[in-house]
Amino acid sequence: MPKKTGAEATSASPTSLSPDLRYEDAVSELEGLIATMESGKLSLEDTLTAYKRGAELLKHCQHVLEQVEQQVKMVQG
Questions:
Q1: What is the dihedral of CA 33, 57, 24, 27, to 10 degrees?
Q2: Please, is 1 exposed, middle or buried when counting C-beta atoms within 10 Å of its C-beta (0-12, 13-18, 19+)?
Q3: With contact defined as beta carbons under 8 Å apart, do 7 and 53 qualify?
Q4: φ, ψ dihedrals at 7, nearest 5°
Q5: 39, exposed or middle or buried, with CB in 10 Å at 0-12, 13-18, 19+?
Q6: 15-70 per-position pLDDT tens digit
Q7: pTM of the model
Q8: DSSP, res 14
């Protein structure tokens, strides 16, 4: 199996996002991906992989925030 480089080495594939992933961990990983992509050191393929992973992380974070917002509304009554 070839050695993973760039975005592939720092994160799993975009489709392997766990629903149990903590919001803070997702944000941290997303920030790391952004920094890596902005460095300009990734190949085009690795940049695409990082972008896909970032899109999944962003979607996950938005979903978590929506759930929290619903909980706050319920508590406020």
A1: 40
A2: exposed
A3: yes
A4: -65, -30
A5: exposed
A6: 568 889 999 999 999 999 999 999 999 999 999 999 999 999 999 999 999 999 99
A7: 0.75
A8: G
